[in-house]
Amino acid sequence: MADIIKCIIVDDELRARNGLKKLIENYCEHIVVADMADSVANARIAIAAHNPDLVFLDIDMPGGDGFDLLEQMDTIRFEVIFATAYDQFALKAIKYSALDYLLKPIDLEELITAVNKVHKKKGILPDKERYQSLKMNIAQRNLERIALPAADGLIFLNIKDIIRIQSDGSYTVFHISGNKNILVTKSLGEFEEILEENGFFRAHHSHIININRVQKYVRGRGGYVVMDDGSSVDVSARRKDEFMALLKV
User: Fold this and answer.
1) At what angle do helices 14-27 and 108-121 cross, to 10 degrees?
2) Coil, helix or strand for 222?
3) Most buried of 27, 141, 168, 243, CB within 10 angstroms?
4) What is the pLDDT of residue 1?
5) Is residue 41 included in any domain, yes or no?
6) Which sign does the torsion angle of CA 174, 132, 94, 4 carry?
């Protein structure tokens, strides 16, 4: 039998709290709603009283946002799933920090998927740096760092240091400054979605490149680029026009 996950719902809207509670109670096995809170202050009291495994946390609340709560914790001993109607920038920043979120109104299948991830991670202490990185990205309205899942935790990278990203079967290899490589157990497509608005381009089915690290483009049917670490990456013929438009040449 799966371990029981004890959760707390933190949201300033009564309807949102009750709606999420009903979904959890009716459709999520092995999870118990221990308490609900309508503010950061009351959330701290609930967390201290129940020592939850999981907190569903709204970001934007009067009298202090979700980040204020996380910052006030000496140690974060629970997983966080953001349940929010926040803007697209914030949602992308959450992904950059390797965190989970549910967009309001909450979709049942997405809720079940998010809860199942928590079941798999139970017993692993969350890393507070994820939340600090997320807060920094949102505060600056500029995505500067990405969190990559590693075997023993998370690796935080400055986006500008990423030269290219290469598919390797079901894995992805990040080629970064200093001739270093990082192997990640996620598909290339997942990173295309969150990096495409930050100067990255899917040049080929197996490669995403950092446009700011392109040193040279060599013409051809699709052509290829030479990156500033000396590596070469083919440009797909069907993506050539889009690539040239991106370079504005």
Assistant:
1) 70
2) coil
3) 243
4) 45
5) yes
6) positive
CA distance 243 to 236: 9
Q: Are 69 and 50 a contacting pair, CB within 8 Å? A: no
How many whole angstroms separate alpha carbon 20 and alpha carbon 11? 10
Same-domain check for residues 37 and 68: yes
- Are residues 203 and 235 in contact, defined by beta-carbon separation less than 8 angstroms? yes
- The pTM of the full predicted model, rounded to 2 decimals, is 0.66
- Structural domain contains residue 182: yes
Instruction: Give residues with Cβ within 8 angstroms of 44, minimum separation 6.
Output: 69, 72
105: cis peptide before it, omega within 30°?
yes
β pairing state of 100-103 and 145-150: unpaired
Count of CB atoms situated within 10 Å of the CB of 40: 22
Query: 98 and 176 share a domain?
Result: no
Nearest to 184 by CA among 160, 208, 215, 214: 208
pLDDT in tens, 16-71: 999 999 999 999 989 999 999 999 999 999 999 999 999 999 987 877 778 788 88
